[in-house]
Amino acid sequence: MSNESSQPDTCSAAGKLCMPPDSRKRASHRLKIARGHLDAIVRMLDDPEVYCVDVLRQIKAVQGALAGAGEVVLRGHLEAHVATAHQRGDSIELVEELMEALKYR
């Protein structure tokens, strides 16, 4: 695993905070796993003999993979951006942004 703290805090062109490369790679991997499970569910539903519990298990697997991807992105954000927000002077903005992103609807 790469040292995310050695990554720059901003994108060079936009001047915005960017996802650390290691987090991006790991989240992408987990989302590909979720897509594979989701594709399996769609194929299962084409089978008139599919067992409901098997479909539910696959749905749970998709939810787990999505949750795992979310955890990777959140950890990367906390380590790369929130931990350094005070130094940049944008801690209030980052907290508000994160609270909005994690709001349950």
TrEMBL record:
Region described as Disordered: spans on this chain: 1-23
GO BP annotation list: negative regulation of DNA-templated transcription
Alphabetical list of CDD domains matching this protein: TthCsoR-like_DUF156 (cd10151)
Pfam family, one: Trns_repr_metal
Protein name: Copper-sensing transcriptional repressor CsoR
Subunit structure, as described in the record: Homodimer.
Species: Deinococcus psychrotolerans
Top-rank taxon: Bacteria
Subcellular location: Cytoplasm
